[in-house]
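Summary for the steering committee. One of the milestones for this cycle was to obtain a three-dimensional model of the protein with nicotinamide-adenine-dinucleotide bound, which we needed before selecting residues for the alanine scan. The sequence and ligand used are listed below.
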Amino acid sequence: MKACVLGAGSWGTALANVLATNGHDVVIWGRDEAVVNAINKDHLNPRYLPGGALSPLLHATTDFAGAIRDAELVLFSVPSQALPVLVSDASALISQTAVIVHAVKGFTRPNNVRISEHINLVMPNVEKRLAVLSGPSHAEEVVRGMPTTVVIASASQSTAETVQDAFMNAQFRVYTQADVVGVELGGTLKNIIALGVGLTDGLGLGDNTKAALMTRGLAEITRLGVSLGASPLTFSGLAGIGDLIVTCTSNHSRNFRTGRLLATGLALNEALEQIGMAVEGVSTTFAAAELAQTHQVDMPITTALKCVLKGDVTPGAAVRELMQRERSHEMEDVGQRPLTHHWRFS
Ligand SMILES: NC(=O)c1ccc[n+]([C@@H]2O[C@H](COP(=O)([O-])OP(=O)(O)OC[C@H]3O[C@@H](n4cnc5c(N)ncnc54)[C@H](O)[C@@H]3O)[C@@H](O)[C@H]2O)c1
Ligand SMILES: O=P(O)(O)OC[C@H](O)CO
């Protein structure tokens, strides 16, 4: 299969490498000439994946149109903020029969639209050729061939299976799913919770706190997901709890590490500069807080984190506020729960 990967950062490089290892004819497009040259000459991407040896069959280019031309599979793998321009630029170049995949974990801003929703708006009639790749998968481990499982969701079973076949190998196991909304939202919303868990780690709080945030975080992202049309079951799968675990417990996670840096007193822009890569959880926190308001979904952790990111409250005060809300029944909020808590600082 002739495949084109748009985005030569950590995830685009790791996924392109999986396709190249599987024997596909892969070209990866990047805007940074130094990264492109390193992939072609040294079979490395030291800027984004230090030490990860790449397949010598993987070819990189800065020629956007040339990369897309004749591709049977086009994969978008850039941060969500870069996605809309890229989709607009690529839409007229992508073949009418190509399968389109995206691996982006975020919303478009400021309208808070899911990425596949955005692609469907810009490229009408692609829904049956469009798939989402998500799940617990740090690029650093994928490029080293560590056993990894992901999920491909599409409105078309045949498209999902085509993409499954393209990526699947002995180290990279791919499941299919029909719940596009749930798979997209699971991978996107877990980043909020990873930021929060990183904050508590940075504050020196314990494992009880992390487990509480992960569990109650899953409850609230599921509530929002269900109100946006996702199946609650998807949140107990790879794109839900699977990705939540890997992001909240790993030093590879840029979201987790950003939270930890914020707890040391760094300003948000300083923390993001230090990470130097996509930290989707920041814009996702604001997007989710707005969606929660619109859909009247109770998301106390997201609301507290939004206030911390805005600098309206310290991380310690946010934890205290979360712990001292009015008493509640754990399973009362499996479905949608109306907003009840009035935030002092929201
Ligand atoms: N890194 C991972 O392990 C991982 C795993 C799963 C999903 N994701 C998701 O994949 C998406 C991409 O993240 P990443 O980890 O590759 O980020 P990254 O920071 O490692 O790389 C981003 C890449 O996008 C490029 N880019 C940024 N702005 C651009 C623009 N305006 N136009 C063109 N290219 C631009 C950068 O040059 C870089 O090559 C994110 O939504 C992320 O959540 C990442
Ligand atoms: O490094 P993060 O926090 O963007 O997480 C990467 C992946 O989404 C983990 O599945």
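Key point for the committee: The pocket of SN-glycerol-3-phosphate (ligand 2) is lined by residues 105, 136-138, 191, 194, 243, 246-247, 252-255, 280 (CB under 6 Å).
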